[in-house]
Every structure is written in structure tokens, then in C-alpha cells.
Amino acid sequence: MPKEVLEVAEQMMKRSTTTSPAVVMAADASALTKPLAPPKPSGGSSTKPRLQLNARSEDWILRNITPDKPCFWCFEWGHWKQDCPIRLAGKPRCSDPRISHPGTKLKKSSFLSHPALAKVEVFEDTDYFEAHVAAVEDMKVFAELVLLDSGANHHVTSNRSLFSDLQPINISLSVATAVKYPVVRVGTASFGVEGGNLVLRRTLYCPSIMGTVLSLGIFRRCDGDVEFSGGIFRLIQNNVIYVSKPLRDRWYIEMVPLPECNAMKAMIDADVLHQRFTHFSLRVLEKMKKLEAVKGLPSKPWPSVNRLCESCLFAKSVHRPFRCESREIVKAPGDVIVVDLVGPFPVSVQRHLYGLVIQDHFSSLVSFIPLKFKGEASQTVLGWLKTFNVLSGHQIKRLRSDNAGEFTSNAFEGGLTQLGITHELTIPYEHHHNGKVERVKRTLGEAARAIMLEKNVDVGLWPWAFRHVAWVFNRMLHTDFVQTPWELVMGSKPNVSILRVFGCVAYVHDPLHRKDLKAKSRKLIHLGIAQDAKGWIFWCPDKKTFVKSASAVFDERGVMDKNQQNAALVKSIAIERVDDSSMINEIAAQDEVFLLMSMNTHMGSGAPLLYKEAIDSEESKKWEIAMAEELDSLEKMNVWQEVPPAGIKNVLGTRWVYALKTNAAGDIVRFKARAVVRGHRQIKGINFAETFAPMPTFQSLRSLLAIALAYGWGAATFDVKTAYLNSPLEEEVYVRPPLGKSVKKAGNIMKLNKAIYGLKQAARCWWTHLAGILRGIGFEVNDGDQSTYSYCDKGNIALLWIHWDNDLHSIVGIDVERIGQQFRLSQRHLIKKLLIGHTNSFSPKQPLPNLELKSEVARQADKEYLSKIGMILYLAQATRPDVMYAVNLLARFLVATNQRHWLALKHLISYLATTIEEVLII
């Protein structure tokens, strides 16, 4: 380092009254003899007062001055640009070495802005082996850890009990202090770690050191495989993956000793507390315990620093720091209430799609209320405001929201006026103006995602996860107060002794137990504290019901079997999963009832599933109108005729399928009802014969679009409404009239004259009928694609591609846009659906990672893996040929899926997220 830089650093140390002289650690390199240049002025006669970093707390310094946050003048870490001695010495700005050499680790500066930074240990890559051995020798805390080292050339341990066989050897081990220790034995060591036993061959036994070092190079060569992604090493041995954890700029794997020590017991208790309090920081719990902010916290101590939590890493990863709002002064609860909507989420088990977040600005007290429609928000907010006023005794003065339609209606404004509340609207697209609620939305979402990932809770139970997080949030300490939000509003200390880990297994007492030989309890899933009863609420996956009870035994480390949870929602999951991949499965694509049920999930936020739900709902009049329109259409098109049931067998049932059609903004534009046949009860040879109907191919679509561009032809569309109802039916099919249809005589049934939605042969009837009409007017079918027709008469040419969807702007899920002499095809909506529940923590540039994928013994297929592969196959066939090889490779392992295959699939999904804006140009 130049001499003048050292002089500037020395002068700065003299100016600082709180910095120890030991902070400046620099070697004198007096190669330059230029006089010290004065600092360059920043312009103007006055300068801004600089932030005094040495006045900051040690915790703040360690969080904000790290190797990832260097000085942007010299690109060494340990100080900021404003204190950089190179800048103050008038030297030019250095270049960032990470630009020319990605992955470069920045050096620690000789000049440090705060004494706390001197305690941070840094080891260079070339010294990893020696530094690790030296650290283990001096620090007993690492004695039970296996430190991972990329520079070591041998495995080394001081634990004799780990070896199964030992052979004499006469070599020495060098450490950082230049001392050499004798190595007396070499053999195979076996480590008990989380997930199994890790076996290391050619391990050196050196009793003079303390601890264990694992050489990553030797492990890759002799013992298994090593992967590094997301800042974590993963060791793979015998198809078992062992995940490392970072600690003090190193990576380690924790050994699990047979006798459990007190320190480990305290750490386990800390893990349970971390999960109970929905993955909030243990530092907050420590502060709460010290201030006695709540009742019921355990009395035994726990570590003040959180252990590495994988669920938090997956759930709370952010791309950039959250933008905080300016501090607003509020004096009491109720001064300002902030509201906002979150969602849409996957449809919950009770048909919820959105969530309403309401928060008191002063106390941070938050409520989360699940909604089926956006339109429910206004009345829900008004009801909450009245309840808050009654329970807390605080008068609400202002309500702040965005400009969404549910918060700007005349009815909502009138309700606020009656309550004497002023309504404040934020400026469009300026979300930081309502930053309080934006931040709590992120907090609730991250914690809900973490607790659901932790216990593998089904996605359909997300409203209870959010409610549980809100309950915990109101009983945690937050900035600026020594009371919890609950105490600030309600005036009493909350009791958290009833808090249990969300999603854990609970054995709930059965009060109806009568027989001695029957089980006296049921194994259920814990979903939090009941809001309208004194007790907990549980989910029964088998019966798909909720249970409230105050008598239960909790296994807070237990997780309900994944298949048992998913079986409870198999119906709704199946509908949602196949919605976008229907073109892949020919039979599913031909079943119109399946499509309509998919529409119910995709389009219908809260559409009823049953006829009784429709007529009992608040929108019953609109559903009745929709059903009347459908029945009127069937009558006008002579689809059926009423007949007596005498002598007729094999009468099929009918049902109603409901959907809510929405526009791009998510607003409901149409209530849709369709009468369908329960075609799954049809018998081949009696009420149906052939069912095959050709499906259009993407090759034909792209070819037709290319021809249109080459010859400058126009591309137009037409739509046949209620297409199936135009198709004559050859077989005799009888159905019961749908609920709500009047008949001339009770008991009469309907004979179908034309195909109706739900019949197995409906698609074939429509194809046969349409093909006959087209041939009659001169069209000829294409030999390679029977859904493509051509017409030629005296130089007039027409090409026709028959598909089953909306219009040319959205063909079978493909967005088609014509710009000049180009057609642009994309499937962004399908990729967004694929990203639901996926955490995109990196941006790969290739579809596949550098992983060796091997087959395993065939077993039952992983349904989730199968679903995602199907969706990506549809993408590859239609608009994304760049992922064709990758998805075909991963499709080989549908019935032999392991964690490596899942890692590769998640890598591919992240690649699609990174390239979501890519289009196929024709």
C-alpha cells in the first residue's frame, strides 16, 4: 500500500476518538515518495456532514460492512467510499476485479472504519487447509464439526473413535503456524451426520490437532461427488445428499454424537422455538424474554444467533433490499389504518383466492382475512373497522389504501363517511407511499411460505398459514416499542404458552369415543389457534374437514405423510395440474367436462362447485340467469327431447359446471353455467362406439403462419359458439334432466338428439360433422394433420386450421402477436403458472445444470414431478424448442425420481423464469 495512503489512514485514526489504533493493519511499502495530496473537494464551498461509522453499533457495522458490500473506490471491504484513504489521497478509482474475474473474493482492507471489523477473520483460498487446521486447534467450538476445505490434500481428524480400521503411517501435517504435527495412523473414518453416515477413506489420524477437516478434492476423487450452488456445498454419497452450513466464513457439516449434550439440547429447543414463532429471529425472542413482553416463553436459555434454517433460505430470499418508506409520525392506535390485497393464490380448500391485510400504523397490529372475491374486500374492511373500535376503544381517524376499485366505490366511501373516517388514496404506482402495509405483506408472505415448506403443508391451506403468522406477528416485539402490538392496542400482555409449530402432527382426543378397542385420538395437522374458540384448529386430510379442540398432544418435529396430505385435495389438485397441459393428453383434451372444471379453477375465483352452492350463494340470481340461458340454448338447438323412462336402461346423470370469466384486470365479466353429462358412466357398445378425434399440431400452426407471411396473406379467425351442440348424435343416449330444469311429467328423462358436453364421443361427433360440411364446400383435409384444410379454386386459396380455444390472439394457450412481417409466439402465462411455489434464487444461462443424472429402481411416479414435466413438454413443443432436450432428458426419470433430478428440474424452471420474455419469431 502506498506510503501516502498509510499517512491518510493514520490521520483519520487520530481524528477518531473511539477507534483503537489496532484497527489500522497495514504493511509499510515505501515504494512511492510523493508528498501527501490534499483531498479533492466535492464541489461548492460547503460539504455535507459525513456519516460517522464509528458511532454506529457493532451489530449494525457487521451487517452493513461485509465482503459483499465493499468500498466502491478501492473495492476492498472494511470501510466505505467516504472514508477510503486511496480516494482521500487523490488516487484514481480502482476497477472492480469481479467484472473481469467473476467469483473473485474481495480483499479485506488494511484500513477499517470500525474496531468491530478487526475481529472478523478472513482466510485466503491458498491458505484454507492450514488456516482451518489452526482454527480447529485453537477453538474447541469446532471439535464436533466437519470443516469442508477446497485446498486440503487429505482428510484429517483427531477423533480416534471415528475409525473402523487403522494402518500405521509416518508423515507430518503442516499447519498455519509452520509447526508440523506427526500423523500416526491412516484409515477409513465414519461420521454420524444428519441424514446418515458419511464415510471417508484415506483419512489421517492426527491426535495433536483438535477437530476434523474434509478435503473436497479427495472426497470428489475417492468418496463421492461435490456440488456448490447458492453458497452451499452439497456432498453426495450413495445417492444421499449431505448439506453443509456456513459458519464464520467457512462451511461445515455437523456430527451427531450418540450421547446428546446439554448444548445440543439447548440448540434443539431453539429450533423448535424458531418454528413455533413462524421463523422470526431468535434475537427478537431474546429481547421479548428480557423485557417480559409476553407470558409463556420457556425459562431455559437458547442461542442468541439463529442457526441456518433452510426453510428461511428458500422462503425469504430477495433480489434486492426492500425499499423502506419515510418515517411517519402517528401518536396512538387508530390514527392511521392501512389496507391492501394480496393474491391471487391457488384456490384454497374453502375456495379462497385473495387475502386482505389490515394493519394499524401505530402499533403494527395486523389482521389477515381470506377472500373468495375481490368484491368482498370493501364490506370486510368496514366490518373490521367497527370491530376494532369496539374491542380496543380507540377511534379510527384515517384509512389509507390504493386506488383499486374495491376501495373506491361509492358504497365504501359512504360507509367510511358514516364512521367518521377520512379516506387517503396513494398515488398510482407509488407503492412506497403505503410502505407500511407493503412491508408487512412481505413479512407475512415469507413467514407463511417458510412454515408451509418446513412441514410440507398442502398449498390449499395457505389461508391458515397466513392467519397463524399474523397471530404470532401481533405477539412479537417490533421497532420503536417495548410492548407487542397486541399489548399496545388491547392493553394486556399476550400469552404465548399455547403456541405450537404450524403444520406439525397432533394427536387430538376424540370426544365421541365410546368403544374401548377403538383409538381414542386422531392424527391430524395443526393449523394454529382457533379464532372463535378456546383451543386449536386442526385439519383432517382423510375427511377433508376442520376440527377444533382444546385437548391434543403435539409432535412438533413430526410431519404428516406427504401422500396422506395430498390425497385430501387430489380432486382440486388434479384439475389445477392438468389445466395447461391438456393438449398433451389426448383423452383429457377431448373431455369437455374436464376443460370446464379446469376453467372453474383457472377462471373462477370462488365459483360454486355444486348446484346447491350456486342457489344458496349471494350471487344466486346471477347464477340462475346463467343456467336459464344455457337451458334456453339447448332447447333452441333441439339438443334433446323429453321422453318417458319406461323400458330404458343406462340413463346417464347430469350436473352443472360453473365458471367466472374475468378480464385481464381480474374483474368478473360473466357468470357462466353449463349443463354437462356424467360421461364416465357410459358403456362402450351401448351408448358410445368410437371416441377418436384428431388434435391440431403445432407444426401445422407454425407452417400456416409462415405461409401467410411469405405470401402476404391475412390471418383471420372465426368462432363456432356451443360447437358440440351442432353435432348430430348417432347412438341413443338418455340422460336425466339437470337440476333446475322443468319437465312436463315428473320422472321423465331426456333423449339426446345432438352431442352435449361430457359425452365421450362429443369431440368425434363435432369433428365428423365439421369435416363433412367443409368437404361439401370444397375443402380438402391435409394428409399429415387432419385438423388442417385447404381450398383452391381458380387461383383463390384458403388454408384452415381448426383448434379448440379462443381466438388468434390466444391459441391453445399460446399468445400470438403479429408485428409487421413477423408473428411472435409466447407462453408467458404458462411459465408464470409453472413458477407458482418456485423460489427463483439464481438466473442460469443454460437449461441444464452440470449434474450426472442416473436412473434408480422404478417406483410410483412423483405426481408433482410428472405434472411439471408435462407443462414444460407443452412449452417445448409449442414455443420453446431451446428446452426440448432438457425436458426430454428429465422425462426419462418419471418413475425413478430422486433429489438430483429435482435439482435439475428446478434449475430448468429457473432458466424459464430468467427467459420468460423470450418469444418464438416466425
Automatic annotation (TrEMBL):
Keywords for the protein's UniProt record, in alphabetical order: ATP-binding, DNA integration, DNA recombination, DNA-directed DNA polymerase, Endonuclease, Hydrolase, Magnesium, Metal-binding, mRNA processing, Multifunctional enzyme, Nuclease, Nucleotide-binding, Nucleotidyltransferase, Protease, RNA-binding, RNA-directed DNA polymerase, Transferase, Transposition, Viral release from host cell, Virion maturation
Cross-referenced InterPro entries: GAG-pre-integrase_dom, Integrase_cat-core, PolX-like_BBD, Retrotran_Ty1/copia-like, RNaseH-like_sf, RNaseH_sf, RVT_2, SH3_retrovirus
Region span, Disordered: 30-50
Source organism, top-level taxon: Eukaryota
Keyword tRNA processing annotated: no
Catalytic activity from the UniProt record: DNA(n) + a 2'-deoxyribonucleoside 5'-triphosphate = DNA(n+1) + diphosphate
Entry's Gene Ontology BP terms: DNA integration; DNA recombination; mRNA processing; proteolysis; transposition
Pfam families in UniProt: gag_pre-integrs, Pol_BBD, rve, RVT_2, SH3_retrovirus
GO cellular component: a single term: nucleus
Recorded GO MF terms: ATP binding; DNA-directed DNA polymerase activity; endonuclease activity; peptidase activity; RNA binding; RNA-directed DNA polymerase activity; zinc ion binding
Membrane-crossing residue ranges in chain numbering: none
Domain Integrase catalytic positions: 329-493
Signal sequence region: none
PANTHER family membership: TRANSPOSASE, PUTATIVE-RELATED, TRANSPOSON TY4-P GAG-POL POLYPROTEIN
Task performed by this protein: The aspartyl protease (PR) mediates the proteolytic cleavages of the Gag and Gag-Pol polyproteins after assembly of the VLP.
Protein name: Integrase catalytic domain-containing protein
Lineage: Eukaryota, Fungi, Dikarya, Basidiomycota, Pucciniomycotina
